[in-house]
Write a structure and sequence with these properties.
The chain is mainly beta. Helix content is 0%, strand content 41%. It has a 3-stranded antiparallel beta sheet with strand order 1-2-3, with no helix packed on it. The radius of gyration is 20 Å and the shape is rod-shaped. 1% of the residues are buried.
């Protein structure tokens, strides 16, 4: 199972101005997430796992860094 994480820090620069910096990570631990096994009975690859999941957050680790100025 993929673990995602998000961290955000907000700093007040002036009374009406803030700066935010953040980071988001998908598949934080970078574990391989295997697809379900082949379920077609009476075939050579029956029961084998030959793919990995491609859903969001299931692929390789992805990290995104963001910043914002709010006024």
């Amino acid at each position: 199972q993929a673990i995602s994480m998000s961290l955000t820090k907000s700093v007040r620069i002036k009374e009406s101005v803030r700066f935010q910096i953040g980071a988001q990570a998908a598949n934080l631990l970078n574990h391989v997430n295997y697809a379900p096994p082949n379920t077609v009975f009476n075939t050579a690859p029956f029961g084998t796992i030959s793919n990995v999941q491609t859903a969001e957050g299931a692929g390789p680790r992805q990290i995104q860094i963001t910043s914002r100025v709010i006024f």
